[in-house]
Amino acid sequence: MRKLRYIIPGLVVLLALYLLLWPVPIEPVAWTPPENPGLTGPYGVNNILAQAELYPLAGGHGPEDTALGPDGLIYSGLADGSIVRFSPQNGGAIEAIANTGGRPLGLQFHNNRLYIADAFSGLIYIDNATAAAGHQVQLATDEVNGEKMIFVDDLDIASDGTVWFTDASTRFDQHNYVLDITESRPTGRLLSWNPDTGETSVHVEELGFANGVALGPGEAYVLVNETMRYRITRYWLSGEKAGQTDIFIENLPGFPDNLSYNGEDLFWLALIYPRDRKIDSIMPRPFLRKIIMRLPATLRVSEPDPIALVIGLDHDGNVVHNLQDHTGRYHTVTSANEADGCLWLGSLTQPYVARIPVP
Questions:
Q1: Which residue, 86, 149, 340, 351, is most buried by CB atoms nearer than 10 A?
Q2: How far apart, in whole angstroms, are the C-alpha atoms of residue 251 and residue 107?
Q3: Domain layout of the chain by residue ranges
Q4: pLDDT of amino acid 23
């Protein structure tokens, strides 16, 4: 018993020193989130997406994004690196056409070339992607200013073929995105790649986890999601504001992921998770976040609610559509793309692509 009188306090001191001083891989910055609007008002709870039609992926999962090909097929990239396609009319039979060797995220066609933002391989593409065979993955770019990109995330393509894309973080790759969330240091970037010159350019830096990208009407501006700032930033390409940025919409009720434009009047925004009160509460406290990083992973990370959140925004950033699913049937939605009168949904985790008529 006398020994315990010394051992227990000693262990307490060692534990305290560990929690306070042990090195961690993050250098958090303080940020105070705006008050969470929650799922109220224009974000009021509903289960519209519970009616979505599901397309099984033949054992694959994680269809982050979808793209309608010029052949009328739906293309997607899966967690194992596969690029797959299927016909919406034939029951969804899946055909794998290539493998990026990484993690395909955003993807989009320009003519018959399929561009892919791959978290590990960079900005890549497949020429003649609609062909029956002979699909080769080619590199467009994976570095800028002599620096390797480590987390290429999403893309959109201008009418002249310029690819606008994001590098989510210069600190942590896709395997370690939780570290980037915990650190909350804005190092994301909006870039472009010119297919004629091969030049890669940086346009906007210090974005809070740069994610979804969408060119606006007339290509006057490009929107980029800042996942860890709950907002969409706009970068002007023409007019009096060319080269400037402003906020398109802020204080979203969830973490914005991919973004798309229907070419007429709507931007579709997927919110992968609703905001979490605990996460918001620790954002202003960098030192506390370092302590939390020293805890076992089971105490640091909790599973978010399995819900789906998609909103439609007009040209002024007003919410005009609000689509949700709280049943758990389809969740962790990462993308929403309008094609042929339907809204196609991708997911970080699900073994399906989902489809619902455009409301």
A1: 149
A2: 27
A3: 52-357
A4: 81
Q: Who contacts 77 (Cβ-Cβ below 8 Å, separation ≥6)?
A: 63, 64, 65, 83, 84, 100, 103, 104, 105, 107, 116, 118
CB 93 within 8 A of CB 56: no
302 phi, psi to nearest 5 deg: -120, 150
- Give the CA-trace dihedral at 330, 302, 227, 210, to 10 degrees: -100
Q: Is pLDDT larger for residue 67 or for residue 91?
A: 67
Q: What is the mean pLDDT of the chain?
A: 94
Report how far residue 304's alpha carbon sits from residue 306's, in angstroms, rounded to the nearest whole number: 6
The closest alpha carbon to 186, from 175, 172, 176, 200, belongs to 172
Do the beta carbons of residue 79 and residue 119 sit within 8 Å? no
Given this model, what pLDDT does residue 81 score? 98
Task: Specify the pLDDT at position 33.
Answer: 97
pTM exceeds 0.90 for this model: yes
Residue 141 to residue 192: CA distance in whole angstroms: 10
Strand order in the sheet with 188-193: 152-157, 163-167, 188-193, 200-207
| Residues 52-357, CATH architecture | 6 Propeller (2.120)
Taking the C-alpha atoms of residue 280 and residue 230, their distance in angstroms, rounded to an integer, is 11
